[in-house]
Design goal:
alpha+beta, binds flavin-adenine dinucleotide, binds iron/sulfur cluster, eight-stranded mixed β-sheet, about 40% helix, three-stranded antiparallel β-sheet
């Protein structure tokens, strides 16, 4: 690609995932970031001082840099095992935090909150950067924050399936001599690693990157849609909590989404929706997904020091408390985990890489299988595609997979545009998407019937039930 700036090479080609990193690395401070019409963060020029130095592009994986080579080198030096999906890794676990309310207040098993707390309280880092509610005057319900107390870390637990940008937090790190541990989705993790290669201050100050498995990054319209479809007011959404464990009957399959909105009066309206009929449905059908996510091939945050996820595996998801699966790529973090297991602060077992992968099969399918069709579709339509690893390029998808990929791209495009056109009316949008959703469900059913994995777990469940009853 011709090096110019992120605006011409990434934003204008609709490849931006809105992380905000380019804003903080620009030496001329000529970039800022805001929501576009679709509720997706995009950087823009806030002054005409751009010298076309290209630093913003060097820190963005969407620019087509052959970044994998350099980043792979980083992981190779420290880790003994390799898996095509997990990347380089040291050890995998399943479990949960046994400390105070970490688990009850966490998205899954609360291990992330435990780790952030231990890194801060043992003074391994000076501060934590993670995501919490946005109290600045900038738009958006959530943002990255620099935290220096255990209480603040606890108050900012839980996953935010919402656009978040890190420009203020990273600018703070550039301007202050502090060390940090930071949470980041896989795409931002890669951008941070690139920036750490080019900017010494970031290399010295960002000590740990804690990532998550990521199915997709939704626009802010996803939160509005959930609010509207649960009876709330999408024009005045004040708060949203995506992962509420309301009672001990809730498992990883059925937790609640809580929305607080204001229906044109001063009274706040609190509405609830089941995760899998709200956001889960949107995630599954790719409603309100960013176009950049169509070309994301990193399931497990391969370049992070540790990657955490839900234990969405048949052996664990009926546990009402919630569990994490986590992949460790950093020996110091592994030592902290082992010590915590001995002290019973963490209840966790070592697991095989295959269990980690099995827990995320739909994401693996989307990011490593259906991606081939999406790339083909974009190339045929003469649309820009970022760099993806070369082994994904051979094209062998079945007819059914082609349809599954195409329907999801259609859903993404329709939901993005129609949410605007229909003035945030969830019923009109749902009606438009109904035929597509029906087709996707039919294809899923047909695939499930013939899947070895489903039969294997069906039979396993019957046998285990018979043994325990
Ligand atoms: C957009 C998104 C998509 C995800 N997709 C999947 C998936 O497909 N499969 C899966 O198994 N897991 C997924 N996860 C991860 C999962 O939801 C949990 O975050 C993870 O299991 C950690 O749980 P926990 O109980 O340890 O976290 P907690 O102890 O609750 O801590 C979560 C931490 O993450 C920080 N955080 C919240 N949102 C963000 C964000 N957007 N970016 C950076 N940091 C954030 C919080 O500030 C908090 O410190 C996703 C998370 C996000 C944010
Ligand atoms: S993905 Fe991030 S670094 Fe790249 S252009 Fe968008 S905001 Fe900037
Ligand atoms: S090319 Fe250089 S000066 Fe221009 S926006 Fe990017 S980092 Fe800033
Ligand atoms: S799917 Fe990939 S690009 Fe999209 S938000 Fe997740 S990690 Fe980022």
């Amino acid at each position: 690609m011709n090096s110019n700036s992120v605006i011409s090479d990434i934003v204008e080609k609709d490849l931006c995932f809105g992380c905000g990193l380019c804003v903080s690395v620009c030496p001329k401070k000529c970039l800022d970031i805001k929501f576009n019409d679709f509720g997706e963060y995009n950087p823009f020029f806030c002054s005409d001082q751009c010298t076309h130095c290209g630093l913003c592009l060097k820190c963005c994986i969407q620019s087509g840099n052959n970044y994998h080579l350099d980043l792979q080198e980083y992981c190779d030096t420290v880790n003994p095992y390799h898996d095509d999906l997990l990347g380089k890794y040291f050890q995998n676990y399943v479990g949960y935090s046994n400390v105070d309310s970490h688990r009850a207040n966490g998205s899954s098993g609360g291990i992330t909150t435990w780790l952030l707390e231990i890194l801060l309280s043992k003074k391994i880092v000076d501060a934590i950067i993670c995501v919490g509610s946005n109290e600045t005057c900038k738009e958006g319900l959530f943002t990255f924050k620099v935290l220096t107390s255990v209480e603040d870390i606890r108050n900012n637990a839980k996953s935010k399936y919402y656009p978040v940008e890190c420009s203020d937090a990273i600018t703070f790190v550039m301007e202050n001599n502090i060390t940090v541990a930071m949470t980041a989705l896989p795409c931002l993790t890669k951008n941070l690693r690139l920036a750490m290669q080019h900017i010494k201050k970031l290399r010295e100050r960002i000590k740990y990157i804690i990532s998550f498995t990521c199915g997709m990054g939704p626009s802010s319209a996803a939160a509005e849609f959930i609010c509207a479809s649960s009876g709330g007011d999408p024009f005045h959404l004040n708060e949203i909590s995506f992962r509420c464990k309301i009672d001990d009957k809730m498992t990883a399959k059925n937790f609640a989404i809580r929305c607080v909105s204001n229906k044109a009066t001063d009274n706040e309206l609190v509405t609830y929706q089941n995760f899998f009929s709200g956001l889960g449905m949107a995630l599954d059908y790719r409603m309100f997904s960013l176009r950049a996510c169509d070309f994301c091939d990193d399931v497990f945050g391969e370049y992070a020091d540790i990657s955490l996820m839900d234990a969405w595996h048949p052996d664990y998801f009926n546990d009402p408390g919630g569990n994490n699966i986590f992949v460790i790529r950093n020996r110091e973090i592994n030592t902290l985990v082992e010590e915590a297991i001995t002290r019973k602060e963490i209840i966790a077992n070592v697991i095989d890489a295959q269990i980690v992968i099995d827990s995320q099969l739909p994401v693996v399918d989307f990011k490593r299988n259906l991606i081939r069709e999406r790339i083909q579709m974009a190339v045929k339509a003469n649309e820009a595609v970022p760099y993806v690893r070369e082994d994904l390029l051979p094209y062998r998808n079945t007819f059914v997979d082609k349809l599954r990929a195409r329907y999801r791209v259609n859903t993404r495009q329709i939901s993005r545009q129609k949410w605007l056109d229909y003035n945030k009316c969830d019923m009109k949008l749902t009606k438009d998407l109904k035929p597509l959703i029906w087709k996707m469900d039919m294809l899923r059913r047909s695939k499930k019937i013939f899947s070895f994995y489903s039969w294997f777990h069906f039979i396993k469940r019957i046998i285990t039930k018979e043994v325990t009853s």
